[in-house]
Design brief:
8 helices, disordered C terminus
Length: 274
């Protein structure tokens, strides 16, 4: 991990924290959004330096997973600014602490630029991992929006603020991010299955990573199904988005605590076995 890469990431984290401070201290949502974007740019440049130095997208191992997961979560947060202006502060207070926690958690692990094994040096693997983290960012943002929905939906009945969007806008955005995550999750499955057929001669391996990821995919498929065919909107849809995200937490972050050698996937360079 180079000095420039490190300092840019630190500056990015600083901007993320400042984005919350701007709202809490001066109640300026526009400044909060501006500093959030500044943090995203700093982190993106840091990631770009690492990408150039290591020769592949930095999405392998716990530290790089933290880089990818946090960045995509906050990117979707920034994309939501105009649509939920009145609730953006609530979303910011939900997503930024999660992203900063992920980054600090990732820094506990190996941050050195470790080369991949021969079987991992493939564009199929790169895109497989990239789509996985794009999906994670969507799922995480949907869960955070669901929390905001549950916390703030009752305030409209009290007539608290005319600038706050109607609950239906939040509900629609939760569903859109859920769909976006599900589509990217499906693409991730397809790419991984194809590369599995090349490596092992089989499209599916009952690896713990595959199994838990399938459970997450089915949970989100259920959430989409229940909304489209049974009208599960509002608080029921929000609760389902949060419940589905809990399965994603295990799928994305819990498997490094499995016994060494239990998976051929890369969740942490120090724990993988080939």
């Amino acid at each position: 991990m180079s000095n420039l890469e490190t300092w840019l990431l630190i500056i990015g984290i600083f901007f993320y924290i400042v984005s919350i401070v701007f709202y809490l201290v001066v109640s300026r949502v526009d400044l909060s959004a501006f500093t959030l974007v500044a943090g995203l740019i700093m982190q993106a440049v840091s990631v770009g330096i690492r990408w150039y130095g290591i020769g592949h997208p930095p999405v392998f191992g716990t530290y790089e997973a933290a880089l990818a997961g946090s960045w995509f979560l906050l990117l979707y947060t920034a994309f939501s600014y105009k649509e939920i202006y009145g609730h953006f502060k609530s979303l910011l207070l939900t997503t930024v602490p999660i992203a900063v926690f992920l980054l600090l958690y990732g820094l506990r692990f190996n941050t050195e630029r470790t080369p991949l094994t021969i079987s991992e040096r493939s564009l199929w693997v790169d895109f497989h991992a990239m789509f996985s983290w794009i999906a994670f960012g969507s799922y995480a943002c949907a869960a955070c929006l669901a929390v905001v929905y549950l916390v703030t939906s009752g305030k409209h009945n009290d007539g608290e603020s005319e600038r706050n969007p109607e609950p239906e806008i939040l509900d629609d955005l939760i569903f859109r991010y859920t769909n976006l995550g599900f589509i990217n999750h499906t693409i991730m499955f397809a790419l991984g299955s194809y590369y599995s057929s090349i490596l092992f001669g089989a499209w599916w391996q009952w690896d713990p990573v595959n199994s838990t990821s399938l459970i997450t995919w089915l949970a989100y498929g259920l959430a989409i199904h229940m909304r489209l065919f049974y009208g599960w909107r509002g608080s029921r849809g929000a609760n389902l988005a949060i419940a589905a995200f809990l399965t994603a937490i295990v799928s994305y972050w819990g498997l490094i605590y499995f016994p060494p050698g239990s998976t051929y996937h890369i969740f942490d360079i120090e724990l993988k076995s080939h």
